[in-house]
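[Target chain]
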Amino acid sequence: MIIAFIVGLFVGIIAKFLMPGRDPGGFFITALIGIAGAMLAHWIGVSAGWYAQNEPAGFFASVVGSMILLAGYRVAVGRRGIVH
């Protein structure tokens, strides 16, 4: 579990680095986005037939999955932060 958190943090940091702009969330959110991005990449890969059910997603796919989730997170948090 600790290894998953560390790898998720690393993947989340890379995703944030590749997507310029203001980043909502801190250390914990970055790790969660990285872990969830790897899970998303695995789900997409299994659905598309790229990965077997018990095979983990690749590093590059995990970063892409994290970037997708980070973009959605920025939209969700950005809208909530605007006061009308």
About this structure: Residues 2-18+26-77 form one domain. Residues 19 and 40 are 18 Å apart (CA to CA). The chain has a mean pLDDT of 82.
